[in-house]
């Protein structure tokens, strides 16, 4: 199950969690392109075609953002706040995928406009199933808002 037009931005600073997520997508036969941002600033640079990502000015935005909360330079809630405050990105689906068990993170995530909040299971089999379900729903069943198609100058 794959569609090259339906890419994912994975915002995650843990190399182990990036590896685990990519492995889970592969085992679930979800072969959509995945871009990895290691911190909040890099994620926003990717979305808004700035800095090292300036060359993607006319490329499509990701279909889905998987966002960790505990990130260096700019945390996930700061990233989400910026995404939702900008016309270009405000309708992009954002799934918070985090190990945080703090209730305030859950409340803040939804208050800032997260589409979903998923706690990363510790068990790999459970994590694999969570990623499979996320992929099927957000990449196969969900319809993307038309205004989130391209990065504009």
Helix percent band: 25-40%
Relative strand content: 5-15%
Please write the string of helix (H) and strand (E) elements: EHEHEHEHEH
Mean pLDDT: 88
Spatial strand arrangement across the major sheet: 2-1-3-4-5
**Class computed from helices, strands and strand pairing:** alpha/beta
DSSP strand tally: 5
Low-confidence stretches: 148-153
Largest sheet: 5 strands, parallel
SS field, number of helical segments:
5
Cα-to-Cα separation, first versus last residue: 32 Å
Shape: globular
Task: Evaluate the radius of gyration.
Answer: 14 Å
Please tag this protein with its features.
153 residues, 5-stranded parallel sheet, disordered C terminus, globular, single chain, 5 helices, alpha/beta
Question: Could you explain the architecture of this structure?
Answer:
The protein is α/β, with parallel strands linked by helices and 153 residues long. It is built from 5 helices and 5 strands.
Strand and helix map with partners:
Elements: E1 8-11, H1 15-27, E2 34-37, H2 40-47, E3 64-67, H3 76-85, E4 94-98, H4 103-111, E5 116-119, H5 124-141
Parallel strand pairs: 1-2, 1-3, 3-4, 4-5
Helix pairs in contact: 1-5, 2-3
């Amino acid at each position: 199950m794959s569609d090259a037009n339906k890419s994912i931005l994975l915002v995650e600073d843990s190399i182990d969690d990036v590896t685990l997520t990519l492995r889970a997508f592969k085992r679930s036969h979800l072969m959509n392109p995945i871009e990895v941002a290691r911190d909040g600033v890099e994620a926003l640079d990717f979305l808004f075609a700035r800095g090292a990502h300036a060359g993607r000015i006319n490329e499509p935005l990701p279909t889905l953002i998987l966002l960790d909360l505990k990130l260096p330079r700019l945390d996930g809630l700061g990233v989400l706040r910026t995404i939702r405050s900008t016309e270009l990105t405000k309708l992009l689906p954002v799934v918070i995928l985090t190990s945080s068990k703090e209730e305030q993170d859950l409340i803040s995530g939804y208050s800032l406009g997260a589409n979903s909040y998923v706690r990363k299971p510790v068990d790999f089999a459970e994590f694999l199933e969570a990623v499979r379900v996320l992929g099927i729903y957000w990449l196969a069943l969900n319809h993307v808002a038309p205004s989130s198609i391209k990065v504009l100058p």
